[in-house]
Amino acid sequence: MELDVQIEKRLPGGFRLQVAFRASGAPLGILGPSGAGKSLTLRTIAGLERPDRGHIVLDGRVLFDSASGADCPSRDRRVGLLFQNYALFPHLSVAQNIAFAMRGLARDDRDRRVARQIESVHLQGLEARHPAALSGGQQQRVALARALAAEPQALLLDEPFSALDAHLRGEIERELREALAGYRGAALFVSHNLEEAYRFCGELIVLANGRIVAAGPKEDLFRHPPGLEVARLTGCKNFSRARVAADGRIDALDWGCTLRVAQRVPATLGHIAIRAHHIRVRADGARELQFVAAHDAQAGGENAFSCWLAAATEAPFRVTLYLHLHAPAASSSDFHVQAEISKDVWETFKDAPQPWRVEFSADRLFLLPD
Amino acid sequence: MSFDFAPVWISLKTSLSATAIALVLGVLAAEWRDRRRRAFGGLLDALCLLPLILPPTAVGFFLLLLFGRNGPLGRLLLHFGAIIVFSWPATVITAAVVSFPLVYVTARGAFAQIEPAYADAARTLGASEWRVFRRITLPLAAPGIFAGATLAFARALGEFGATVMLAGDIPGRTETLPLAIYFDIEAGQMRQALGAVMVVLLVSFAVLIALGILARAARRRRIPEK
User: Fold this and answer.
1) What is the ipTM of this complex?
2) Which of A171, A205, A230 marks a domain boundary?
3) Which residue of chain B comes nearest to A135, CA vs CA?
4) Which pLDDT score is estimated for A181?
5) What's the structural domain count of chain A?
């Protein structure tokens, strides 16, 4: 079951969507900030929006082709769409919502199939309830059962967890993965949450401003982001404009320091970056720092600098430190990098005298082309 | 002299028929307008609402032009041997025309309030446009449409100006309650007029109470926002 999409669509506000990709088997993730065109892409595939140009082919069936003028109506596409807010019909019961997707069946046959769908999402006993009387997770399961009841050849999931409370997500994610495991069609999973997309999909497409800025296996995208946009979307917080220095090291212009890197330098270097949880912070005192700096050229603890704390925000188990390099921070918003460390580590040095030492290990830094 | 019930039956028959016509046409027109943006949409809206704003006598004037012996529709109907002016159907036509805007306006409001995702979801589940309308849009808009129909019935029941121009006042045929009240008073038959007024009062009360019940039911049915 392969879904082949190549579409272009211009919106009145000047926004232009231009994407091309193929999906089959395992869910393909579409990751991007809000307004990137993710939902529009799904709506176009489902036949709810009409592209200006391009084609959509599902399992050999042409759903849309601007060249031949083919435009299959939504009802005949056999593309299931799981809406962000589920769009369960509020005036119909759970069983009626699911039965709506089944047509041309004898009554008892339909009832049997509805019962089977309800069972498959563990909603027995709730058949007669109306959507308003269900929890968010139950609503999502009804929506999934309803979408699958129409036996779609492709299933499009639009931010399936955005309407749920955080504490429910883990469990519901697991259930959805389970329910999708038996699904044989093509699946697209849209999200702005990178961790969610990472857990759900093998391959990812990164969408920004209506265009695909990166595509590939998720591990590659996270380990070697091909550009600033992707690095940012995959959760990287620290960027500095960069230039190749005379000795082959990299000048991080915004951070005011020169760094040794393990990665090959791209032809057009734009930025140097590091993830917040890859920065190491220690309160070893200025003396040791001088020692390190002196031995920097030879080996060992290179890329280490003195730093001052500008601000810290605490989460239950982790702390984000906003650090100013080389000199004390003028205010709480005056910082160069943010580092994320575990609270246990934080407790060991939070009262130690400053400056502290920050270290960017060479194999954690990545270089982004312009 | 005993109370003449003929105007009561004529009024009820006329108002119910007119409401039914206004309901069907108003809902269809509203749905048709709701589904797509149209050129001259504003002009179309204004045209649909005109009978609500115009003095009923002006509406009657236009209807006379249309259905009169020399009017385009009048001539066409004459071809089939039907004369509208001064006949019972004229009371229905005028009442339907003046109450149509009330259905149209409330139905448009009701359709506009429905989350578009419901119809979209129905389409992706294989439903035809007709099935989307019948099973999703119409039931969800029903409370609003009912309210519009009730208002339309009340307006049809009270219709006087246009009716007297197109249908005239023929006792037993086109004399509705409002007409009866006016001509009873003109003839000095105050007791007759009082009886007719009491009937109108009763029916109006019943309509208002029904509206209240509907509004409460609609509130109960509304789905809490997630």
Assistant:
1) 0.81
2) A230
3) B226
4) 78
5) 2
Residues A261 and A365 in one domain: yes
Cβ distance A155 to A189 under 8 Å? no
Residues A68, A291: Cα–Cα separation, whole Å: 72
Rounded to an integer, the average pLDDT of A56-62 is 94
| DSSP class per residue in A22-77 | EEESSPEEEE--TTSSHHHHHHHHHTSS--SEEEEEETTEEEEETTTTEE--GGGT
How distant is the Cα of A73 from the closest Cα of chain B, in angstroms?
9
* B175, two tokens: 């004399």
- Which range marks the domain in which residue A94 is found? 2-230
A320 phi, psi to nearest 5 deg? -105, 125
Interface probe, candidates A48, A72, A130, A158, chain B, greatest B C-beta count within 10 A: A48
Instruction: Report which DSSP code applies to B137.
Output: I
Return d(Cα B71, Cα B55) in angstroms, integer: 21
Q: Which of A161, A195, A230 is the last residue of a domain?
A: A230
Nearest Cβ partner for B121 among A79, A83, A103: A83
Whether A273 and A145 map to the same domain: the answer is no
Q: Does A185 touch chain B (CB under 8 A)?
A: no
- CATH number at B6-220: 1.10.3720.10
pTM: 0.79
Give the pLDDT of residue A44.
96
